[in-house]
Hints:
By secondary structure, the chain is mostly helical. The protein has a domain at 36-62. It has helices spanning 8-28, 36-60. Helix 1 (8-28) runs antiparallel to helix 2. It is elongated, with a radius of gyration of 14 Å. The protein starts with 7 loop residues before the first helix and ends with a helix.
Amino acid sequence: MSKSIYDQKEQLNFLYGKMELLMTMLDSMDPEETGVEEIDRIIEMLDEIENKCKKFRNELKP
């Protein structure tokens, strides 16, 4: 299990890393060969990033 990230800079670095991973995945996909499983994984990754953004935003509220 990973530890919580409370530092705003670390949170942004975490999100940038996740986005870079997603972009790398998208760049490596062949649109003609991509199946439903790959698209489902992309949607899952986007949901994870969205949830992390919400969590980090809520942690910043006073």
